[in-house]
From TrEMBL:
Organism: Apostasia shenzhenica
Keywords: Glycosyltransferase, Golgi apparatus, Manganese, Membrane, Signal-anchor, Transferase, Transmembrane, Transmembrane helix
A molecular function GO annotation: galactosyltransferase activity
Lineage of the organism: Eukaryota, Viridiplantae, Streptophyta, Embryophyta, Tracheophyta
Heme in keyword set: no
Keyword Kinase carried by entry: no
Protein name: Hexosyltransferase
Length: 415
């Protein structure tokens, strides 16, 4: 603005250069006053417009904006804390749910396995009924629940042993029938057939069975080297004929207290997959010609190694679910030379309850006698040196008198 005024004044004075000096000085004073006023006005106008354009925010607004930012930061921080806490809680909840789910899956898996075993047993039973008896001479028994089935392993040449067992610890006639009906206990001698089916040996067993009615016959060729196959056939046949909680295998040259055996097994009836006996881990015998030679010794590692844990063969018992497992998988279960080793191998990898009860392998008198006098009756008694009672036909009656539980003990017992 000042430049414009000065230019106008300059042009005015030049154009009027010819006027007199007094008039010129008067006009000059007027021009200076107006110029000064214009300059002051222009300065004030400039200040006014400058303040309007560049207004400084009040301190309150600055504080208010700063406060808003801090509040926002606090909200964000608190929100992060809440999110972190909720994230931790969610992770803990997820871990808890995962643990519950894992437990449920394990329980379901066990249930499915048990159902598969029972299904296998049911299929075996159905096939035996549709195709007739699973073995010649056996009559399918009406299904009811039993406590245990006791199978006494015997051979064609063991007639005297069988008679000695009948005369001591195995009830006969009406007592055996009462034992089955009232106590749910089945006792049978277990035998296969000869290589010439229907030969003189088989006829002798048929005549003996007609007299006593205490045999279960297997679809199996008898032979000492085939005990593993016979044991498997026994469990398959027994579970197809009788629905029991336990299946027991006994040799025909040992003494057994039936009531004590039943009471012992009844204590474990709530457990799944029970395998009970006198557990051992004997040496693997690689040398040919020795008793209990193991032809497949190389499967057990270096020379001098021991077998896995298994029950000694004189007496052992398994629960129904394990018997069902054997029945279901009978065609793929490997058989070792020794039947007790074979049975133990079938349960490797299963969630089995191993129960080591030394009352199932007491010695003959005085051992079992001392224990009986102390009120700790033995389940089974035999001589380790003979893997049974040495000269059992002559001695089992004496063992029975000194270590037996009494004739009516089984009928007075409550399971």
């Amino acid at each position: 603005m000042g430049l414009v005024v000065k230019t106008v004044v300059g042009m005015s004075s030049k154009s009027r250069g010819g006027v007199g000096g007094g008039e010129a000085s008067a006009r000059s004073m007027v021009s200076r006053k107006w110029t000064l006023l214009l300059c002051v006005g222009s300065f004030c106008a400039g200040l006014f417009f400058t303040n309007r354009m560049w207004a400084i925010p009040e301190p309150k607004e600055i504080i208010r904006r700063t406060g808003n930012k801090e509040a926002k930061m606090e909200l964000i921080a608190s929100d992060c804390d809440v999110k972190s806490i909720s994230t931790k809680q969610e992770s803990n909840d997820i871990l808890g749910e995962f643990s519950k789910t894992h437990h449920s899956v394990q329980t379901l898996d066990k249930t499915i396995s048990n159902l598969e075993m029972e299904l296998g047993a049911a299929k075996a039973a159905q096939e035996s009924f549709l195709n007739g008896s699973p073995t010649s001479g056996n009559t399918p028994v009406k299904k009811r629940k039993y406590l245990m089935v006791v199978g006494i392993n015997t051979a064609f040449s063991s007639r005297k042993r069988r008679d000695s067992v009948r005369a001591t610890w195995m009830p006969q006639g009406e007592k055996r029938k009462k034992l089955e009906e009232e106590k749910g206990i089945i006792i049978r001698f277990v035998i296969g057939h000869s290589a010439t089916l229907g030969g003189i040996l088989d006829k002798a067993i048929e005549a003996e069975d007609m007299k006593h009615g205490d045999f279960v016959k297997l679809d199996h060729v008898e032979g000492y080297l085939e005990l593993s196959a016979k044991t498997k056939a026994y469990f398959v046949t027994a579970i197809s004929m009788w629905d029991a909680e336990f299946y027991v295998k006994v040799d025909d040259d040992i003494h057994v207290n039936i009531a004590t055996l039943a009471t012992t097994l009844a204590r474990h009836r709530s457990k799944p997959m029970v395998y009970i006996g006198c557990m051992k881990s004997g040496p693997v015998l690689a040398q040919k010609g020795v008793k209990y030679h193991e032809p497949e010794h190389w499967k057990f590692g270096e020379a001098g190694n021991k077998y896995f844990r298994h029950a000694t063969g004189q007496l052992y018992a398994i629960s129904k679910d394990l018997a069902s497992y054997i029945s279901l998988n009978q065609h793929v279960l490997h058989k070792y030379a020794n039947e007790d080793v074979s049975l133990g191998s079938w349960f490797i990898g299963l969630d089995v309850h191993y129960i080591d009860d030394r009352r199932l392998c007491c010695g003959t008198p005085p051992d079992c006698e001392w224990k009986a006098q102390a009120g700790n009756l033995c389940v089974a008694s035999f001589d380790w040196s003979c893997s049974g009672i040495c000269k059992s036909v002559e001695r089992i009656r004496d063992v029975h008198q000194r270590c037996g539980e009494g004739e009516n003990a089984i009928f007075n017992s409550v399971f």
